[in-house]
Design a protein that fits this description.
Layout: E1 13-14, H1 24-27, E2 39-41, E3 47-49, H2 50-54, E4 60-63, E5 79-82, E6 91-93, E7 100-102, E8 112-113, H3 115-126, E9 145-147, E10 152-154, H4 156-164, E11 173-175, E12 182-184, E13 201-203, E14 208-210, H5 212-216, E15 224-226, H6 227-281, H7 286-337, H8 340-358, E16 386-389, E17 400-406, E18 421-427, E19 437-441, E20 446-451, E21 457-465, E22 468-469, E23 475-479, E24 490-491, H9 494-497, E25 531-532
Antiparallel strand pairs: 1-12, 2-3, 2-8, 4-5, 6-7, 9-10, 9-11, 13-14, 13-15, 16-17, 17-20, 18-21, 19-20, 21-22, 21-23, 24-25
Length: 562
């Protein structure tokens, strides 16, 4: 704030004695670290000076997949930051939380003004924590008193002149030091369309505050009422949304606490298992030591995998919690310290942010566990004593199965069951939930595993015994589409199969003279052997490749079986 900057004027409201008013987080810009100047409220509910926002480097969001894409969700992996000259939609990043802010047509100056922050700056200046206040009339001398009627801060000279004037001689004057117990001392909020008029009314149709001139002009015949009459309804809606947001904050805090406890338990368990491995390996020859190193490497891989999963979940929950806290803190501050008009001006931004945060899905439990074990009595040969057969054959919505064969260290079948076999079939893109699996113990050292994939695609198959992967696990399986039957007929030509219809077509593309649109023996395009009328394949037991509604006109078939 510059030294000759005019102080803020406005209404005052008393707060209980002893209430803390000084709060640099509400009055200082997170970028320039100075008192707010023309603060703007971002959609993420962080406040930044207008000048600081204008100095941020803008960007535009570009879909790198091209015009055929219909994916436009926020945070899509197909978005990238491009220079702002490539697209007309300009955005910036919030300097506090890096949230994407799409600027309106008017740019930074079209963002919502944070009047609550402006009031806090005024209060901090009043308490001597900011720069000194100057007279509203002469803009030169320091303030001594405030006219409660005019809502103006005056120096000693202007105060005397104010009292000498007939129209202002009976105005109430208050010493500036007596205002330090107030929570509201901001200037009146004026209409941007009519700067001489104060915003005192609220248009229910347009859902925004308006002035007296707006009501007789642009908002004529709109349902309008004084802000004091509608604040209860709109304030209650914000409070109800806040009430639904606060439990998420508590749940996220508890989830993060569980993540920390699980991470600690995982570290302790890893250290305990590592100690067991080292103790077991001591005293053995080099071959045993090499085997020990291999076990430790597997343990480290498990630890890295689980810890990475925990860290990723922790980072996501921490970011969501920070966003939730920002929304809750700002909304609570708005509802407790904001005026009726300030709540109405800000409520749309607040409601949109809280609704968006409440829709974010998250898991309140750690995504991994600390189950890691070491079996010193198990023979090392069993680490490679499992084989999987017929794993890579699967089609969508059809039950697929494979067999797990257990062998001993000599390569012979174990001939018994009872092992703890765990199998997981998970889509590689992880968009869908894991596929349900069934494990049948044949009691002879073999285990039959069956599952039914719902969608085609690439799947990862995890096969573990005693929580240790068998050789080759995890496996990759490509699930193909369901075998499609032929909707047509296996014939020699459309002339015969349709009873001589001229309009009958065939997928082979053959035609006949005389206006026949289909194939006939020895004529143009006939393949010379029997074929399917729907797709043109020559193998009678093949899978049909014709897709209804997506073929060319010549692949449409109209035949009758004789």
């Amino acid at each position: 704030m510059s030294e000759n900057r005019k102080p803020l004027l406005g209404f005052v409201s008393k707060v209980p004695s002893g209430t803390a008013l000084g709060n640099s987080g509400k009055t200082h810009c997170p970028l320039c670290m100075g008192l707010f100047e023309a603060p703007r409220l971002l959609p993420c509910l962080h406040t930044v000076c207008t000048t600081c926002l204008e100095q941020l480097e803008p960007f535009s969001v570009v879909d790198i997949r091209g015009g055929d894409s219909d994916t436009s969700s926020e945070g899509s992996i197909f978005q990238e930051l491009k220079p702002c000259s490539l697209q007309p939609q300009i955005g910036i990043l919030c300097p506090v939380c890096d949230a994407q802010v799409d600027l309106p047509m008017g740019g930074v100056k079209a963002l919502t003004i944070d009047h609550l922050a402006m009031n806090d700056v005024m209060l901090e200046s009043l308490h001597g924590e900011g720069q000194g206040l100057v007279c509203d009339l002469c803009s030169d001398r320091e303030v001594e008193k405030r006219c409660q009627t005019c809502k103006a801060n005056l120096c000693h000279f202007c105060c005397q002149a104010h009292r000498r004037q007939r129209k202002t001689t009976h105005h109430t004057m208050v010493d500036l030091k007596d205002l330090k117990g107030y929570s509201q001392i901001g200037k009146p909020i004026l209409c941007p369309a009519h700067p001489a008029e104060e915003l005192r009314l609220f248009c229910e149709l347009c859902d925004r505050p308006v002035c007296r001139d707006c009501v007789v002009g642009e908002h004529r015949e709109h349902p309008c009422d004084f802000t004091s009459n509608v604040i209860h309804k709109h304030g209650d809606s914000v409070r109800e949304l806040l009430k639904g947001t606060q439990p998420h904050v508590e749940a996220l805090e508890e989830a993060l606490d569980q993540i920390k406890r699980m991470n600690s338990a995982l570290q302790e368990r890893v250290e305990a298992v590592a100690a067991n491995v080292r103790t077991f390996s001591e005293g053995y020859i080099r071959a045993i030591e090499e085997h020990r190193d291999k076990l430790l490497k597997q343990l480290e891989d498990i630890r890295v995998h689980k810890e990475n999963s925990l860290q990723l979940q922790k980072a996501q929950l921490e970011q969501l919690l920070a966003d939730m806290r920002t929304g809750v803190e700002f909304t609570e501050h708005l509802l407790t310290s904001g005026s009726d008009l300030e709540i109405l001006i800000t409520k749309r931004v607040v409601i949109e942010r809280l609704r968006k945060l409440n829709k974010v899905e998250y898991s309140a439990r750690p995504g991994v566990n600390d189950k890691i074990c070491f079996s010193p009595k198990e023979k090392a040969g069993l680490c490679h004593g499992y084989e999987v057969y017929d794993l890579h054959k699967a089609r969508e919505k059809q039950t697929a199965s494979f067999t797990l064969l257990c062998k001993d260290a000599m390569g012979e079948s174990m001939g018994r069951g009872g092992d703890n076999v765990q199998v997981a079939v998970v889509p590689k893109d992880k968009k869908d939930s894991p596929v349900r699996t069934m494990v049948q113990d044949n009691k002879d050292g073999t285990y039959c595993v069956s599952y039914t994939p719902k969608e085609p695609g690439v799947y990862t198959v995890w096969v573990c015994i005693k929580e240790q992967h068998v050789q080759g696990s995890p496996f990759t399986v490509t699930v193909r589409r369901k075998h499609r039957l032929h909707p047509g007929i296996f014939h020699c030509c459309t002339f015969c199969s349709s009873g001589g219809q001229k309009t009958a077509r065939c997928a082979c593309g053959g035609t006949m003279p005389g206006g026949y649109l289909g194939c006939g023996h020895g004529h143009k395009g006939h393949p010379g052997r029997p074929h399917w009328s729907c797709c043109g394949k020559f193998n009678e037991k093949s899978e049909c490749t014709w897709v209804g509604g997506q073929s060319t006109p010549r692949s449409l078939l109209r035949t009758v079986a004789l």
